[in-house]
Amino acid sequence: MAKATGNSKVKKKPSEDKLIAIYMDYVLVNESTPRSVYKFAKVNDITEQEFYEYFGSFDGLRKKIWDKFFDNTLSVMEKSPDYYSFNNREKLLTFFYTFFEILTANRSYVLYALSEHKDRMKNLEQLKGLRRKMRSFAKELIADGNSEKSFKLFEQSESIFSEGVWVQFLFLLKFWMEDNSPSFESTDVAIEKSVHTVFDLFDNTPLERVVDFGKFLWKERMA
Predict the structure, then answer these.
(1) Domain with 141 in it
(2) Widest CA span of the chain, in angstroms?
């Protein structure tokens, strides 16, 4: 019996990142989510078992996409040697700028994923893991700031600040989704003004930035 030649290719097992890329492409090409894991696997020449090695469902995969956006953001920031010398305000600015750059690179998918259902809350369910990660990141920032304060009287609430950052993100996300400015320049301005406003409020500084931010939002929505 003749031996098989070395020309036959061994099928490469898909990675987690590969499955995510296939899913995002499927959604955009078909303008709908897959009806079943079986059909998704068959169309993309993978097995159900290969899918379930990484994800228990499409819901789990969708949540993982947002986790990846967050993890990639931190990875990009931490590669910069300047990042570690930033104060907390600069770190949060850098985080939002970088995160929204990654969202912009995946804008078509993000817009679809967050507009798939008429019920807005149902669309936001996929952000549960991201919320935990973002609040944890914000808590670390404020904890670092508190460690530098001499008196507990001047310490800031980690839970309130972290929830404020999450609400701020949701506002910026909606703003970015509706932003029609070139290169989403208005979103960059909104990020800068909102971050300064949040920190100014927590630092009990004059409220000029709050007024300035309010004027900016009014101008953008009335334009």
Answers:
(1) 57-222
(2) 87
| Cα–Cα distance, 101 to 151 (Å, whole number) | 38
pLDDT digits over 174-204, tens only? Answer: 999 999 999 999 999 999 999 988 787 766 5
User: Is the residue at 135 inside a domain?
Assistant: yes
pLDDT at 121: 86
Give per-residue pLDDT as tens, 213-223: 556 655 655 55
Query: Three-state SS for 207?
Result: coil
Residue 111 within a domain: yes
The 3-state secondary structure of 133-182 reads: HHHHHHHHHHHHHHHCCCCHHHCCCHHHHHHHHHHHHHHHHHHHHHCCCH
Secondary element (H or E) of residue 199: helix 185-202
More confident residue, 159 or 66: 66
Query: Does the residue 31 lie in any domain?
Result: no
Domain count along the chain = 1
Residues 98, 73 contacting (CB under 8 angstroms): yes
Q: For residue 159, how many other CB atoms are within 10 A of its CB?
A: 11
Q: Which residue has the higher pLDDT, 143 or 42?
A: 42
d(CA 146, CA 157): 9
- C-alpha triplet 133, 69, 179: angle, nearest 5°: 105
Both tokens assigned to 47: 């097995």
Q: Is residue 25 assigned to a domain?
A: no
Measured between alpha carbons, how far is residue 68 from residues 83, 204, 215, 221 in Å? 20, 35, 34, 31
- Whole-model pTM: value is 0.83
